[in-house]
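Entry 14. Structure prediction run on the chain below.
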Amino acid sequence: MATKDAGAAIAKTQARKNWTFADFAGLNTQALRTAIKPNEFSALENALKIGHGNFRTVPGPSTVVAEVSAGQTIYYLQSVTIGTTVYMMAASVAGQLFAVNLSTMAVTTVQASTNFTACQMCQWKNERVLIVDQVTGYWDWDGTTLTHNTGSSAPATGTAIGAFSGIVWISGTGTAGRTISYSRIDSGAGSTNFRDFTAPGGSFIITDSNWHSNIVQLYTANNYLYALGQDAVNVIADVRVVGGVYVFSNTNISSGIGTEFASSVIAYYRSLWFASQVGFFGVYGATVRKGSDQLDGIFQDLVANTPFTSAQATIYNLLCLSFLFNWTSPTGNRSVIALFLNGEWMLMSQGNELTFMTGAVVDGINNAYATDGTGIYQLFADEGNQVAWQIQTALNPMGNPLVTKQVTKFGMGIFYTSSTESINVSIDTELSSEVYSVSGAQAGFTWVNQLSALFTWVNVSTDPFTWYSAAGYFFLTKDVDNSGKYCGLTVSATTSPVVVTLLALEFLERNIWSRQ
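Output returned:
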């Protein structure tokens, strides 16, 4: 009796099966598409994972809300509140400084000279903005008057500035780049101690041997003043006056990891986050942890010397952490936003040429703003702005990576909010991709009379037409055909906001071991 091949003995089982997917996770570029979890995504852009069966595409950016001045290129943004007015401060490459009223969008020229070519800023009470420049030194603006604090006891130049425990803290430049000067403590209404660095003000040097760079940023959050270098983080806390002298703790909490991107540092709930060339890191108490393992594949394709900036953004009433950077994407070099919500990462695109992003709290809402160097935009602000989005699933073995599957149907649950634009669907396997188009227009409905007989509508030319719903829930389906051991989907479109609730495939199991 002849021995049969083991594979041939299990050929063509022809079992028709359905795969449905609503337990959405986030983006994972750490592994190949065939190796990530079945509910993770290998590409995910402009789709916000809110919960189970709830992927909602995000609003687009606003039109330009402000332009500072003809010919000026913005390199730095910082929001401040003076009195009850929220301003977006904007510094230009030419050294000029502008203030945009985020309620009226009126632009004030704060300084028309060339004094702010490398500056950092911070809030001082609700009274003024404090500014330090690496060339021109220490300034403040109270909404009306810009004061250059020369001739005072303040440092002549500075890299970073922070306000903490009623004291102004400024890090030096050059050979003084690890020196932090601190002012006298605020003494109440009308006090100008923020300009006075005489005793009991003073300075100290970070002498820790695990520091190998100057101070990059000073940032106040969670009852600490954080001092961040390129490969270390210290925290300053417990500021007290003892015998007329300020005493405080200065504790190192990170060795080997820090940031070179001052404007990437941001507080998010009870943690502090920052970007490095190898990932995004969160500081939780005295522990620094990498929080972006799922984005490792993207960090391998950063545009050389890309800067990172950050903001908190409220999208559909959800507070999200976001980082802007330049990425060599499959479609070319462009600016993208890595967005973090509920432990998951997603990519967002709000314009390919954005250069700097920051946040501002307006009417109690955290909004994200960005510039392309010329104009200032509010991000995730215009639900009427159609946005290109993409959802790409894992390549799933569908239970058995040895069996070839023939995909025969595609299905997707979707809520349209306004109109039923067409959706592009790619049926993917490890071998190939087959592209189809499906539209909510296929979900037309017919009218019947009280006897259940078909009732046909005609237009003025007596031509029949079909009724369609312009909004609401649809289950889109399409007959498709592709085969492989691993199967998945790429769904993309340019639409007004939609909600994806379900993805589904029908497939037949074919041969085991063979590729057919």
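Residues 1-13 have pLDDT under 50 and may be disordered.
Filed with the rest of this week's runs.
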